[in-house]
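Repro:
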Amino acid sequence: MTDPLPVSMPLRVADLPARKPKRFDLRPAPEVLPLVAGLIGAESVRKLSFKGEIRPAGKHDFVLEGDLGATVVQACVVTLAPVTTRIEEHVTRRYLTEMPSPAEHSDPSAEGIEMPEDDTAEPLPEVIDPGSVLLEALALAMPLYPRAEDAALDQADFSPPDAAPLTDAALKPFAGLAALRDKLENGGNDSDGSDGGTPA
């Protein structure tokens, strides 16, 4: 049996209003925040709120929309000093009775090319828990590599064992290739509007 979530507001889909939204406003108590921090891998969570609504969409589907606000503290990836981040995120989840098949994402005009899937859609469960959505959205919104303002990495060396290191300086030519690629994708035009041709 799994441990209960520190932030939870389970709502049975069968009990949700069929014609109007069900509103929620989650503001966990201070004593709950350390449990939230442990679940999402943060050093601490100082403020946390998630306010929004679950509303019917069509005959059988539902949409959850809410505004997530949080202040999280993580360890700097360079110095391990605490890094504080303010998160403001608009969250959307679409709960569908019938999920679209992969074929429905394909582009009929371009064989073999697929449209990106809707990452907000998921199968309609028996229970929708805004607290669970809060924790998931917060974990996804946190910086992957938090870094303090005064933290600086030394010159990086990239090389396999027993090989000459590929340093930052050695990588500079690749930056020039990237610039050339961008220029070609723009039709050969420079950013200043000139045609870049040789004077007659």
